[in-house]
Amino acid sequence: MLPLEELQKRIGYTFRDQELLKRALTHSSYSNETGARNHHLLCNERLEFLGDSVLSLITSEYLYSNFPELPEGDLTRIRAATVCEGALASYSEQIGLGEFLLLGKGERQSGGAKKPAVIADAFEAILAAIYLDVGNADALQTVSEFLLPFIKQAVAALPDVGGYHTDSKSRLQEFVQKDKGTPEYRLISESGPDHNKTFVVEVYLDSNCIGRGQGHSKKYAEQAAAKAALVLFGIDR
Questions:
Q1: Which of 220, 230, 235, 229 is nearest to 69 (CA)?
Q2: Distance between CA atoms of residues 92 and 23, nearest Å
């Protein structure tokens, strides 16, 4: 298990209560092995419960504010796609969360640190831990600063959802292909460790840069660049 200081660097938040962070990283298989009578209270399951609500509120507010033209059904479908187990597991993988988990011997030997269900639950527990550690009116904002970059990238990478194209690359292609040509995406740079790389991409049209974006994968960076181009053309805001 890597030191907790490294995880706090990756998530961009330093806990005042380090025990709260440790609880968020404690799987039930680990607490069970302590033999404590209250072992079920020593794992991250209660934090996961709270984190699920924090995740839903922040994601719902973001979608409500940024997609004012979408009906409730489409907002629900987009939210489901960005907060499902698979999505949360991918967010966890981007920060290497599995490397920090406290797992029981059997769970660790069976690859628990890479199981989608395990690392997705831990991600929700981390959200709750940050929320509780801040403990004041800034709590939701602090969690949002950590969470929303993941949500925004996930939304940008979605295909057509409920008849609404959230895929910025497809929407940009549809806009420019009428009479302007084909967008060209160029990788400008990549930096950072393997578990948390940042890619910067620019999109060009007729040798002119019309958008620039970054993300933790080339795909996300291209989507961000396309989004910037749509804003430039007045299609998005």
A1: 235
A2: 16
* Coil, strand or helix at 36: coil
Rounded CA-CA distance 212/114 in Å is 33
**Rounded to whole angstroms, what are the CA distances from 163 to 17, 74, 166, 230?**
45, 8, 9, 18
Instruction: Tokens for 160, please give them.
Output: 């057509």
Query: What's the alpha-carbon Rg for the chain, to the nearest Å?
Result: 20
Looking at residue 44, the DSSP 8-state letter turns out to be: S
Those residues whose C-beta lies under 8 Å from the C-beta of residue 103, and which sit 6 or more positions away, are 27, 29, 30, 112, 113, 118
Question: Mind telling me the catalytic residues?
Answer: 52, 124
Number of H helices, E strands in the chain: 11, 5
What pLDDT is recorded for position 237? Answer: 66
- Per residue in 181-214, pLDDT (tens digit) is 789 999 999 988 776 688 899 999 988 999 998 8
Amino acid at 177: Q
Question: DSSP character for 194?
Answer: G
Question: How is residue 164 written in tokens?
Answer: 């609404």
